[in-house]
């Protein structure tokens, strides 16, 4: 309403116009005509600006596969929920393939990563680069996970380890992502050292990857 009101502020009443120029009728003053032109020009500028903004939004480039993986890693680093992480995959069962032949569904691996968040409040997934090396294949180089053990940390079905205050730096890993329709169809994880992933975090704070003997 304020903008529309401004458009008409340059128009004087018929009576005032008649008195000022002595001719009666609906004649506009010079000042009124100038104000109307100015307001109309302003309206044209606003309309043009709105059209340009709409065109810019319409022409915004779609996300690349590299963009999607970058967002996925950012979600991990802000300690997003399991649901948020799983949403990057084609399904909760999307395979997570390790170099030793172990395969986990995406939902299970994301749940284990969430456990690491809880035990290492400053957990970070650092990496060197993300590059789509061929269509639908994205390579993440030199992943290095770091964090300080500040809370109880339990891995899989192993007993929880109380906080030790240790700062952990794991060995590097390489991640391959197979993409489909803007989602991760498969993730392949290759360890470049002995201590990697949630098991590496567990061992680094004193945990033993041996299940306690069952009772009875």
UniProtKB/TrEMBL annotation:
<protein>
    <recommendedName>
        <fullName>SnoaL-like domain-containing protein</fullName>
    </recommendedName>
</protein>
<feature type="compositionally biased region" description="Polar residues">
    <location>
        <begin position="40"/>
        <end position="54"/>
    </location>
</feature>
<feature type="region of interest" description="Disordered">
    <location>
        <begin position="1"/>
        <end position="64"/>
    </location>
</feature>
<dbReference type="InterPro" id="IPR032710">
    <property type="entry name" value="NTF2-like_dom_sf"/>
</dbReference>
<feature type="compositionally biased region" description="Basic and acidic residues">
    <location>
        <begin position="28"/>
        <end position="39"/>
    </location>
</feature>
């Amino acid at each position: 309403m304020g903008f529309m009101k401004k458009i008409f502020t340059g128009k004087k009443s018929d009576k005032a116009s008649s008195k000022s120029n002595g001719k009666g009728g609906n004649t506009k003053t010079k000042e009124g005509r100038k104000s109307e032109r100015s307001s109309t020009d302003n309206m044209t500028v606003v309309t043009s600006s709105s059209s340009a903004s709409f065109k810019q939004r319409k022409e915004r480039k779609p996300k690349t596969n590299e963009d999607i993986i970058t967002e996925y890693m950012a979600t991990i680093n802000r300690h997003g929920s399991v649901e948020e992480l799983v949403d990057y995959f084609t399904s909760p069962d999307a395979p997570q393939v390790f170099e030793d032949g172990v395969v986990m569904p995406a939902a299970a691996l994301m749940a284990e990563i969430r456990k690491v968040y809880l035990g290492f409040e400053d957990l970070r997934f650092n990496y060197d680069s993300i590059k789509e090396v061929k269509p639908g294949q994205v390579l993440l180089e030199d992943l290095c996970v770091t964090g300080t053990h500040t809370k109880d940390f339990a891995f899989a079905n192993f007993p929880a380890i109380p906080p030790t205050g240790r700062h952990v730096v794991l060995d590097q890993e390489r991640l391959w992502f197979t993409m489909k329709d803007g989602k991760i169809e498969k993730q392949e994880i290759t360890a470049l050292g002995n201590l990697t992933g949630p098991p590496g975090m567990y061992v680094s704070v004193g945990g033993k990857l041996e299940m306690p003997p069952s009772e009875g």
